[in-house]
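Module 6 notes. Inverse folding takes a fixed backbone as the condition and produces residue identities as the prediction. Think of it as a translation problem where the source language is geometry and the target language is the twenty amino acids. Below is one complete input and output pair. Work through it position by position during the lab.
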């Protein structure tokens, strides 16, 4: 066991290590022109030749290396904690694997997130855009979408490394500090939300460094902090309830693929199916609430028992 103050320090260290890793290397850092550009609200300015934006392939590659190394460092810190109380390195390694949730689980915890997204999935079905439907393309919607450099970042490396660091590593140290379940579910994810605040600088620069750009960056940051924190509450619950990092990872990947639900836009696109869309959204939400506890129940989990 460790003191709560030590858990706070280690959690902050994990966040700093992960976010800071993308600023250590010159290849991973962003660069922008200092020129102010006044644009219509909602429009980004064109990228200049000497600038480095987060979606540049070379920037993405450098950041993928950085966050993978940072994740390994965080896992090594957890291993060091276990080694302090373990009789051997092998025992410490086993404890690390258990605490980080490197274990399988049933299929049910992986189905809760798709259930919540029943409304958006129904809309995708009406568009014929689900796998196997007429408007779905193996090349465009699978290979190009998931296996481009940006796709590997968005749907593979980011979900896995973020969940390992912000869920498994952070919750491990708070569990060792004997934090309550409520504290681990509702307080630790605020670090996850705070870790996304640095995107405001990019937004401010991409939208012209003007007062309108500052407003957009501020609004976007508040929204992203709120959304990622709420998502963190959910993934923390999944991790603690199942004792496995896999359900949070699959939930993270699924949410990144689907994006933020937009029922208003979905209804405006198909007003003839307004009632069906509303029902699908409501059934998904109610089903999620009713299934959450039962579908995540796992016998003998390290954290929940």
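Target side of the pair, the amino acids:
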């Amino acid at each position: 066991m460790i003191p709560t103050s030590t858990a706070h320090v280690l959690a902050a260290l994990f966040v700093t290590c992960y976010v800071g890793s993308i600023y250590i290397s010159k290849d991973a850092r962003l660069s922008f022109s200092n020129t102010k550009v006044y644009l219509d609200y909602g429009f980004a300015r064109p990228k200049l030749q000497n600038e480095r934006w987060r979606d540049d392939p070379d920037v993405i590659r450098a950041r993928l290396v950085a966050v993978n190394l940072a994740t390994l460092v965080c896992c090594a810190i957890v291993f060091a904690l276990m080694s302090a109380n373990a009789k051997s390195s092998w025992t410490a390694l086993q404890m690390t694997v258990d605490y980080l949730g490197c274990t399988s689980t049933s299929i049910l915890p992986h189905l809760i997130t798709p259930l919540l997204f029943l409304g958006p999935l129904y809309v995708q079905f009406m568009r014929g855009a689900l796998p196997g439907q007429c408007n779905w393309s193996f090349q465009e919607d699978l290979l190009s979408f998931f296996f481009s450099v940006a796709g590997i970042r968005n749907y593979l490396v980011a979900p896995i490394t973020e969940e390992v660091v912000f869920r498994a590593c952070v919750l491990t140290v708070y569990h060792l500090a004997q934090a309550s379940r409520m504290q681990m579910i509702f307080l630790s994810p605020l670090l996850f939300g705070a870790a996304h605040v640095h995107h405001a600088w990019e937004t401010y620069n991409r939208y012209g460094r003007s007062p309108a750009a500052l407003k957009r960056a501020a609004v976007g940051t508040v929204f992203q902090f709120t959304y990622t924190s709420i998502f963190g509450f959910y993934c923390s619950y999944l991790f603690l309830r199942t004792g496995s990092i896999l359900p949070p990872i699959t939930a993270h990947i699924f949410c990144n693929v689907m994006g933020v639900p937009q029922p208003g836009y979905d209804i405006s696109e198909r007003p003839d199916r307004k009632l069906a869309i509303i029902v699908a959204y409501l059934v998904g939400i109610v089903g999620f609430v009713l299934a959450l506890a039962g579908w995540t129940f796992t016998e003998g989990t390290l954290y929940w028992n």
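Reference fact for the lab report: The mean pLDDT is 94.
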